[in-house]
Amino acid sequence: MATPRLEGIEACVFDAYGTLFDVNAAAQHCAAELGDSWQPLAELWRGRQLQYTWLRTLMGAYVDFWQVTGEALDFAMEALGLSDNALRQRLMDLYLQLDAYPEVAQVLRELQAGGMKTAILSNGSPKMLQAAVDNAGIGGDLDAVISVDQLRAYKTVPAVYQLAVDELSIAPGAISFQSSNAWDAHAGSHFGFKVVWVNRFGQARERLPGDPDVETDSLRDLPAIVGVAG
User: What are the residue ranges in the chain where pLDDT is below 50?
Assistant: First the structure.
């Protein structure tokens, strides 16, 4: 099957959590302590983390993503009957060192070698993003790391996606936006990006405004999709 192509792309902008970095990794690294609860904890933690960003944005009650992440973990641990301050601290520490997906570093290098600008656009706080980028060793392969913290509102507010346009000085239609989160992929498309939905988890398509241009199960083929390889 031929690799789909996006024409006229000048920059590749990536969501961070779930797209470049494995959001389940922190809980999975605590599987010895959590046993069979590690995956339910990971899923509940992530679900509440996202819900709190949306709800806080609607409420006009912004706090940074680090605080949201801690509050979501507190909810998840209480819901699962877990009360262990040392475990909580370890999970939060591990969230600063999430594993990058195995193809990420090579894909970023290929994109930059092909003349493509690369950037992260994330809900993550600057501290969180810097820690994740440093842990993955990909700082040299990125032109920009953009946090919503400067806007004090979370995705899917259109102004969040405008941050990438302003930072890179590239029109929305010349930006390929990659996200594993279907709601984020739709929002990026609705804003005006070309979108590659990295459907790592076999999700059903959302019924939301916007329509991702390409669906893949990893980032492996991205250089060919945007025309810098293959």
Answer: none
Domain that holds residue 185: 11-21+100-225
Q: Residue 2: inside a domain, yes or no? A: no
- 211 flagged as catalytic: no
Are residue 128 and residue 181 in the same domain, yes or no? yes
**CATH number where 140 lies:** 3.40.50.1000
In a domain, 6, yes or no: no
Count structural domains, the chain.
Answer: 2
Spatial neighbors of 224 by CB under 8 A, at least 6 apart, are 3, 5, 230
What is the token pair recorded at 100? Answer: 């990058």
Residues 108 and 217 in one domain: yes
pLDDT reported for residue 1: 59
Does this model's pTM top 0.85? My answer is yes
Burial of 199-219, coded b for 16+ CB within 10 Å and e otherwise, reads: bbeeeeebeeebebbbebeeb
Do 141 and 188 lie in one domain? The reply is: yes
- The span from the CA of 152 to the CA of 97, in Å, is 24
- pLDDT value at position 96? 96
Domain match, 43 and 79 both: yes
Element (H, E) at 215: strand 214-216
| pLDDT tens-place string over residues 76-124 | 999 999 999 999 999 999 999 999 999 999 999 999 999 999 999 999 9
The catalytic residue among 15, 22, 184, 221 is 15
Residue in the structure block whose two tokens are 């302003």:
166
How far apart CA 65 and CA 81 sit, in angstroms, is: 24
